[in-house]
């Protein structure tokens, strides 16, 4: 990914590494459309912390293929189930990653996908339950660029 | 996206059992962020939607963005209350849809 | 290591290494196989052991492993007629699952006819041009990498078993010489990273023994299968050297020598690496 070729990536590599390990990088204000996407999904309502477990590596072996597993606590019955889960990444060129839509027939609110992360950043999940309540969770994934893994 | 999708689920399940379904399709998932050797942007071309239904009823679906890795892997669960057929559909930006079907029987 | 990338990057790397070690440290025990007498390593360790648990999990499950997309594509191609002789691979070789078992584990192999070793990619193209009268597949083409992966996969779990004596001996020595020759602006040899510093970080990269038992390998970075000579090219490019050409005699010699460094390791194709 990225609009630079190998040589440019290599020459810039040292700088990228330096950027990605600064602790502030993960906590910086999102520079993409993450906030807007979340607002659109929640309708501006506050999402509570909890119910969601995100399984993501602390350090990605490579940012181009990062395994992501989601579990949301829910009985997944017709009366009470997880409807949708929005994933955004606040440090990618575009924040959108995926939106998952569950039904009571899903049985469990669990899913796994593989995502691209352009740099160290937060992956944010927001779950919308069948009763309209909202939950959120986030996890920082360190992404290193430079060296042979590119 | 001519390759056959890869799908794994059990051949049979007990009534009420929750099974795991794994799917993998071949696709470059061209993000639209890259440039070719001449510096021209390579247009985005991804699978933007996946849907799974069982006996005509939706089980799980998702919309996908360019931040999904090439050769998209999607794993989810399904509760089996009756025997029947799963239908899977992957929709490409170019409008083409790749579909697949898998049957599941009830265990006595 | 005496490599300098500028003080900022060095500091950054040090910081990163410390934080990364917290994760990698738990996985410090890397299992391998005992090396035969006279080998450079005491223990021969697959690249699998140097990767994170997430990456290993991608390899461990045949459905989750994207390398199997290539295996399935080539399984169809195996039966597909191509060229003016009206033959497919199957016309001569039958079921790959039986006839190709062990073939990929023993490559590169001496060819009496050509009076030199050939690797799997070359042998596939020899079959295509001589027996099928079909066009050879280009190196790095999806077709050639898929078929190479499919045939190597038939040896999965079997030990790497290249022959290095007899006529192969000068090729082995040539490969060894290349392995220990420093190249490029960074002045690094294969041995600098993969013999002397495996198990350590070079910048953001966790160095393995550089074993080839998993090739072609699905690289997370490229999100596709990478044939061995492309990886060789990549390494030489990364040290800012001028790479040899894929399928050149130099890379063929290196392929033979590096395969010997991993002698006895089970073939893992299609493996998953960073």
TrEMBL record, chain A:
Protein name, entry field = Thiosulfate oxidation carrier protein SoxY
Q: Does the keyword Signal apply?
A: yes
Q: Which organism is it from?
A: Bradyrhizobium denitrificans
Q: Which UniProt keywords apply?
A: Signal
Leader sequence residues: 1-28
* Ranges where the Ig-like SoxY domain occurs: 39-148
Gene from which this protein is expressed: soxY
Q: What is the lineage of its organism?
A: Bacteria, Pseudomonadati, Pseudomonadota, Alphaproteobacteria, Hyphomicrobiales
Q: Which NCBIfam families match?
A: SoxY_true_GGCGG
């Amino acid at each position: 990914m990225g609009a630079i070729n190998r040589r440019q990536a290599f020459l810039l590599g040292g700088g990228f590494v330096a950027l990605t390990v600064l602790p502030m990088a993960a906590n910086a204000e999102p520079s993409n459309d993450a906030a807007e996407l979340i607002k659109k999904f929640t309708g501006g309502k506050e999402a509570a912390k909890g119910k969601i477990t995100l399984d993501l590596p602390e350090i990605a072996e490579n940012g181009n293929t990062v395994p992501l597993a989601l579990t949301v606590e829910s009985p997944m019955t017709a009366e009470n189930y997880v409807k949708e889960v929005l994933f955004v990444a606040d440090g990618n060129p575009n924040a959108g990653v995926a939106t998952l839509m569950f039904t009571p027939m899903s049985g469990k609110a669990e899913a796994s996908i593989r995502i691209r992360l352009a740099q160290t950043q937060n992956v944010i999940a927001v779950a919308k339950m069948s009763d309209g309540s909202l939950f959120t969770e986030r996890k920082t994934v360190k992404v290193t660029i430079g060296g042979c893994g590119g | 996206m001519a390759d056959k999708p890869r799908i794994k689920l059990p051949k049979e399940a007990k009534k009420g059992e929750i099974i795991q379904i794994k799917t993998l399709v071949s696709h470059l998932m061209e993000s639209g962020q890259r440039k070719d050797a001449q510096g021209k942007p390579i247009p985005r071309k991804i699978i933007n939607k996946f849907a799974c239904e069982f006996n005509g009823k939706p089980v799980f679906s998702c919309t996908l963005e360019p931040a999904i890795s090439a050769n998209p892997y999607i794993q989810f669960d399904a509760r089996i209350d009756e025997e029947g057929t799963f239908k899977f559909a992957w929709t490409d930006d170019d409008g083409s849809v790749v579909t697949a079907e898998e049957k599941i029987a009830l265990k006595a | 290591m005496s490599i300098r990338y500028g003080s900022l990057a060095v500091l950054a790397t040090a910081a990163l290494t410390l934080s990364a070690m917290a994760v990698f440290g738990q996985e410090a025990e890397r299992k391998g196989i005992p090396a035969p007498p006279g080998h450079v390593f005491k223990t021969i360790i697959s690249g699998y052991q140097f990767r994170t648990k997430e990456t290993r999990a991608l390899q461990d499950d045949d459905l989750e492993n994207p390398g199997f997309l290539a295996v399935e594509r080539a399984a169809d191609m195996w039966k597909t007629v191509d060229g003016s002789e009206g033959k497919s691979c199957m016309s001569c070789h039958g079921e790959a699952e039986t006839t190709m078992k062990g073939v990929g584990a023993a490559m590169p192999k001496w060819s009496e006819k050509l009076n030199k070793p050939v690797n799997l990619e070359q042998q596939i193209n020899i079959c295509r041009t001589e027996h099928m009268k079909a066009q050879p597949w280009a190196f790095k083409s999806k077709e050639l990498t898929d078929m190479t992966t499919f045939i190597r996969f038939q040896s999965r779990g079997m030990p790497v078993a290249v022959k290095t004596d007899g006529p192969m001996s000068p090729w082995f020595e040539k490969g060894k010489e290349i392995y220990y020759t420093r190249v490029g602006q960074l002045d690094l040899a294969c041995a600098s990273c993969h013999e002397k510093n495996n198990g350590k970080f070079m910048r953001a990269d966790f160095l393995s023994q550089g074993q080839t038992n998993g090739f072609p390998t699905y690289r997370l970075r490229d999100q596709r299968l990478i044939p061995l000579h492309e990886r060789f090219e990549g390494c030489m490019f990364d040290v800012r050297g001028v790479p040899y050409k894929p399928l050149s005699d130099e890379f063929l010699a290196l392929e033979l020598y590096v395969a010997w460094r991993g002698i006895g390791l089970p073939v893992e194709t299609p493996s998953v690496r960073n």
